[in-house]
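Notes, p. 3: input format for complexes.
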Amino acid sequence: MNGVRKGDAYRYPLRFVCSPHPGLGDGPVYLDYNATTPVDPRVVQAMGPYLAGCFGNPSSSHAYARTPRRALAEARGQVAELIGAGPGEVVFTASGSEADLLALRGAVLAARRPRPHVITQVTEHPAVLETCRALERLHGARVTVLPVDQYGLVEPAALDAALSEETVLVSVMAANNETGALQPVGELAALAHEHGALFHCDAAQAMGRIPVDVRSLGVDLLTIVGHKMYA
Ligand SMILES: Cc1ncc(COP(=O)(O)O)c(C=O)c1O
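Output follows (231 residues plus pyridoxal-5'-phosphate):
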């Protein structure tokens, strides 16, 4: 690159740390932490070397792959520990929407049923609801959208009544992004399993606020989102 001396790359990201976002400085106060959060300075610090200098494709076979591969394995282990999963169960995606889409499409298409049945609920994020619509449109899925009660909660009895032999997946979020309603995820997951269906939980708004452990919740697929918790 023209005019860039050796070593400059390491100094570059630190300039960002020194100029706060207007919402965190003298500008209007930023309160939309459910949409996204500022990156924690400790995260900036930890990521700095990889963004500036230690580039490389971790899947490559040459020496440039070694450092990013080690970093990726460490990050995967940390995420796994956070949610009580094994490192091999963690899949990194670019966003929460992509994680929801991958979980739903992956589980439904892997079931290889001519008319897979999917159950979700009405206050899910569009990443889940629109993916269900796409599964209907493109893959012949039948989708049941359960209602919620006056507290924004799914009635376990309603899920029980909707489950059938054809149900391959149930997707219900842990915490709602607008109301904060906490769904009875453990109970709903157990019902899904009784009928042989997988259970996906979008925990984008729960992670970092309440304990989330995949084993004690009994979920098969979980979405969590780094940018909603300072990463
Ligand atoms: C519950 C929930 N799921 C999924 C998403 C999508 O996450 P992203 O913005 O990273 O695509 C959001 C974002 O607001 C959310 O609140």
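The chain has two domains: 41-89, 96-228.
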